[in-house]
TrEMBL record:
InterPro entries: At5g48480-like_C, At5g48480-like_N, Glyas_Bleomycin-R_OHBP_Dase, VOC_core. This is VOC domain-containing protein. It comes from Tripterygium wilfordii. SUPFAM superfamilies: Glyoxalase/Bleomycin resistance protein/Dihydroxybiphenyl dioxygenase (SSF54593). Residues 22-154 form the VOC domain.
Length: 163
């Protein structure tokens, strides 16, 4: 049994329990586009900006401060949008970070239309039933920063995955 626990991330010695309180996905965008991204997410999805950290050491000729991070709230969840410049240790793949974000709503068409009006691009049509997430309806948009957002309306619970 001890060998199995080690494979699954446990240790042979009892470790102190670690409790996480929050998971905050971080969307990395090419500098200096984080402010534009925040404005887009406000217009497209109605996010609420909770906090912002700006870089204080900015050259005088640059108009806007570089946002180090902005904490945004959407549908009860929090995520962070951050500028990444060429000198940063963080890596930035072209077209977003490779993650897909899922938003659930009862009006998929209206949510997609609002995102497109704010600058997103709809990808494909809206799928229904077995072709969609959890048997509901789903459409997909790509925001101007390369992140893919699934706009879903679920009609049934997703299947439970057994460990």
């Amino acid at each position: 049994m001890a060998q199995e626990e080690v494979k699954n991330g446990g240790s042979e010695k009892a470790a102190a329990a670690v409790a996480f309180t929050t998971l905050k996905p971080q969307l990395l965008v090419e500098a200096p586009k984080a402010n534009d991204a925040v404005l887009f997410y406000k217009a497209a999805f109605g996010v609420v900006e909770l906090d912002r950290t700006s870089q204080s050491k900015r050259k005088a000729e640059q108009e806007l401060p570089l946002i180090l991070s902005a904490q945004l709230q959407l549908a009860g969840s929090t995520f962070v949008v951050s500028d990444v410049d060429a000198d940063s240790d963080a890596t930035l793949k072209t077209g977003g970070s490779g993650c897909v974000l899922c938003l659930e709503t009862e009006d998929v068409e209206a949510a997609i239309a609002k995102a497109v009006a704010a600058g997103a691009v709809a990808e494909g049509g809206i799928a229904d039933g077995q072709d969609a997430c959890c048997g509901g309806r789903v459409g997909k948009v790509k925001d101007p920063y390369g992140f893919v957002w699934l706009i879903c309306s679920s009609t049934k619970k997703c299947a439970t995955v057994e460990a």
